[in-house]
Amino acid sequence: MKDPRAPGLGYRILRLDSKPPELHLQQRTEDAYTVRRYLQGVPEGQDEIIREQALPLETNMDMMNGIDFRKGCYVGQELTIRTKHRGVIRKRILPCMIYDNDEPAPQVLAYNPGDDSSATALTADAIPGETSIGRVGKKGRSAGKWLKGVGNIGLGLCRLEIMTDVVLPGEQAAATYKPGDEFVLAWGDGHDARSVKVRAFVPDWLRAGLSEPHG
């Protein structure tokens, strides 16, 4: 069965017994699967879908075939359906790429494990979860928060009108994104203070879903 969440996530195999499937396929590690998920912007688990905080639409469940709006009964159903039809989802989980403060912003989302030969000493797994994302040289509301990562990529809950060129329905005047804007993750105090720049990307599958009329 093809994974319905996003392109490139492969297939799921359902069996009635515990025997491994006899398939002539290359076996990959869980880390490789995690990298693929991050590149597509697909969250899993409570480190990425934060318990008692995450909203289904902000985690892209509506775009990943995770919600049936015609049936079902679950906690938060009324709020979820009302937001879909009447509200605006300003934040979404997106794939993000970190880069050194003195480097130019990356133009393409690409994975770098950040080993000893890499120019980037800081890797994404060292960034504390829920670290606030700020705009370089500007004050004001947070642009989002970091969730989790590996190497130079990860996932962030990002404000679309601030960090991306996505224009929300009826929100053209509220959009503050500018192509030259840069964003930063900063944490720690004193000698332990660290910072790294971060850029969010909108995967093609998510951009296509956001451009479709929903009502």
UniProtKB/TrEMBL annotation:
One of its GO terms (cellular component) is mitochondrial matrix. It holds the Pfam family Beta-barrel_CAF17_C. Keywords: Mitochondrion, Transferase, Transit peptide. Belongs to the GcvT family. CAF17/IBA57 subfamily. It is found in: Mitochondrion matrix. One of its GO terms (biological process) is iron-sulfur cluster assembly. Residues 90-207 form the CAF17 C-terminal domain. Gene3D superfamilies: Probable tRNA modification gtpase trme, domain 1 (3.30.1360.120). InterPro entries: CAF17_C, TrmE/GcvT-like, YgfZ/GCV_T_CS, YgfZ/GcvT. This is Iron-sulfur cluster assembly factor IBA57 homolog, mitochondrial. GO terms for molecular function: transferase activity.
